[in-house]
């Protein structure tokens, strides 16, 4: 069989939200929906929401002319490991975009993005590999987003913000607008808690919470 095979990696909550977006995309392209599956390292059952669930090896063994995978895994570190697995096995990353997401001018984006319903990307934005933007998130003008960054639902990333690799921005967080040449910066691997209002830079690896956001005391 020479038809391509498409998969959403992860059959848990987020994967089950992403797969219908992929299904819509394939339907628009005239690709049979039996060519869309889940991948899960520990399949919960043979089928989830009408689609087969395969192990990674079973996915590789399935006859196909080409293979495409979307990584519906929240952890940026795990996404990076799985991205390396795709590359090593000759599997292509699959971008999934909701039909109603909005993208304006001069937006450059790396491979493997998942852009959910009502996401907005405005203008003059640079985004790295394997970016996740969950429902109702937006990225405003002149922002730079690194690799393996995750935006949970409703993130408000205002203009002139830099978000470095592996950062996680929690549901409803607000990142204050920076200035040209002096962007607000979220460091590598930083975590911004749910509903946090970030008014100043966040150092690499630090978790911040609250309004205004402050480092979480352990």
UniProtKB/TrEMBL annotation:
Q: Which family does it belong to?
A: Belongs to the transferase hexapeptide repeat family.
What the entry lists under InterPro entries is as follows:
AcTrfase_PglD-like, Trans_hexapeptide_repeat, Trimer_LpxA-like_sf
UniProt protein name: Acetyltransferase
Highest taxon of the source? Bacteria
| Record's signal peptide | none
Q: Which SUPFAM superfamilies match?
A: Trimeric LpxA-like enzymes
